[in-house]
Specification:
- The longest helix has 40 residues.
- α2 runs antiparallel to α3.
- The chain has 233 residues and is mainly α.
- It is built from seven helices and no strands.
- The chain is globular.
Length: 233
């Protein structure tokens, strides 16, 4: 066999690398579309936008890893900066930090074990990281953007900034838990994502309704909390 011949295994890897790039581009476009739709939601506190693009980016990260999640976070935030954002480079920076800070820890922990429990732990970790990072970066950047004293930002932390990021993280986490299983299954069926490789004699796990029911309850709770923060409830 010639030394430069392509083996079937190499051909399959190359094919799936191409499909992975296409799928990541599709998910990036979908995340941008979700972000654009979320622009119609009234900002909480006059400047905090409830954005659900992290759901799509996290699904991409669960499929392709933390680096893919980071690249998608940067790409969507940059497209938002170029098109519909009116917050300039500060908004771009805050978007990247918020999205990557939530998605990347969740993806990293899930990809280590590929279990529902790992996804739950990862998403909780992501919510904590998101909240802590946004407290720190709002303290730094909000006075620069709005021209307000830092004491005013401190006064907003407990009643506004911390609850907002907790609710945002909860909503995205519940949606991820609900949407990832059917989305990943559909992508595998149309061969955009490689199928799971089962060990010999391994029994395929049955669908567990408990995480779905819990995620649905959490989602409804998050929606009600968001509506309360908007003053609608």
């Amino acid at each position: 066999m010639p030394s430069d011949a392509i083996t079937p295994a190499q051909h399959t890897r190359s094919l799936y690398n191409t499909k992975s790039l296409v799928t990541m581009a599709m998910l990036t476009a979908l995340a941008y579309a979700v972000m654009a739709v979320c622009k119609v939601i009234p900002p909480i506190g006059g400047f905090l936008s409830l954005d659900l693009k992290d759901t799509v980016i996290a699904i991409g990260g669960f499929l392709y890893g933390p680096l893919a999640a980071l690249l998608m976070s940067v790409a969507v935030s940059f497209l938002e900066f170029l098109t519909v954002s009116d917050t300039g480079w500060i908004g771009l920076l805050m978007n990247i930090i918020a999205t990557a800070g939530f998605v990347c820890p969740a993806v990293y922990l899930y990809r280590r074990k590929h279990k529902t429990s790992a996804a739950v732990v990862g998403l909780i970790t992501g919510i904590v990281c998101l909240t802590v990072l946004m407290v720190l970066w709002n303290y730094i950047m909000t006075p620069i953007f709005w021209g307000m004293p830092r004491e005013a930002v401190v006064d907003m932390l407990v009643p506004l900034i911390i609850p907002f990021n907790l609710v945002k993280g909860i909503l995205n986490s519940a949606l991820i838990m609900l949407l990832y299983p059917p989305v990943s299954t559909a992508l595998r069926k149309i061969q955009l994502v490689p199928a799971h490789q089962s060990a010999p004699g391994e029994v395929k796990a049955k669908f567990n309704y408990v995480p779905t029911v819990i995620s649905a309850v959490v989602l409804v709770t998050g929606i009600l909390m968001a509506l309360a923060m908007m003053g609608i409830l």
